[in-house]
Specification:
Number of domains: 1
Largest sheet: none
Number of helices: 7
Order of helices and strands: HHHHHHH
Shape: elongated
Oligomer: single chain
Radius of gyration: 18 Å
Distance between the termini: 28 Å
Structural class: mainly alpha
CATH topology: Ferritin
CATH superfamily: Ferritin, core subunit, four-helix bundle
Strand content: under 5%
Length: 189
């Protein structure tokens, strides 16, 4: 099903070690509206979505996995040279004593990832509206992280990710309209 290219979807550059910024990015790594939750949500929903839009969910789920890889790269680059004192100052000491510099699926508050983040109702329209909301929340979170960052190199990659969330939201909106038209004309649901 997948072919893995050994390169990131978009280059990730980091200007300086910044564990605080890495902590903020964990929201997009292991948070409710982050990339892992999105990839799993869309991959799961594709089994109960009409064939007309199933490919869209698969495509976006796959892209979300590439975004997860970008976020992981950002977090790693922002923390790889951090001292234990810098880790502590960033509020990551609890993470450090359990995981050292290893990545772990947490949100920015340190709450571990949970399957309850993966929403699926089984109603295609309801699920697509959930997906639109998830993409818009991710877009907003990326903007807020950019607002907290003074790393112009990193912000370039974050802006790319923010823009992809907008594209995904628009694609899901198109899918809603396709399915609404089908529902109104064929009574498929």
């Amino acid at each position: 099903m997948w072919y893995y290219e050994k390169k990131l979807q978009y280059p990730v550059k980091v200007s300086t070690c910044n564990p605080t910024l890495a902590k903020y990015l964990t929201e997009q790594y292991g948070g409710a509206d982050g990339e892992l939750a999105a990839a799993l949500r869309y991959m799961n929903q594709r089994y109960t979505i009409p064939d007309k839009v199933v490919g869209l969910l698969t495509d976006i789920a796959t892209e979300e996995l590439s975004h997860l890889e970008m976020i992981a790269t950002m977090i790693y680059k922002l923390t790889k040279d951090a001292t234990p004192e810098q880790i502590k100052e960033a509020g990551l000491a609890d993470h450090y004593v359990s995981h050292d510099n290893a990545l772990f699926y947490l949100n920015a508050a340190g709450v571990p990832f949970t399957a309850s983040y993966i929403q699926a109702k089984g109603d295609p329209i309801a699920d697509l509206y959930e997906d639109i909301a998830a993409e818009e929340k991710a877009r907003a979170t990326y903007q807020w992280i950019i607002d907290q960052s003074d790393d112009t190199d990193l912000n370039d990659s974050l802006k790319f990710l923010r823009e992809r969330e907008i594209v995904h939201s628009l694609r899901f909106r198109e899918a809603v309209e396709i399915l609404k038209d089908d529902r109104n004309t064929k009574k498929v649901f």
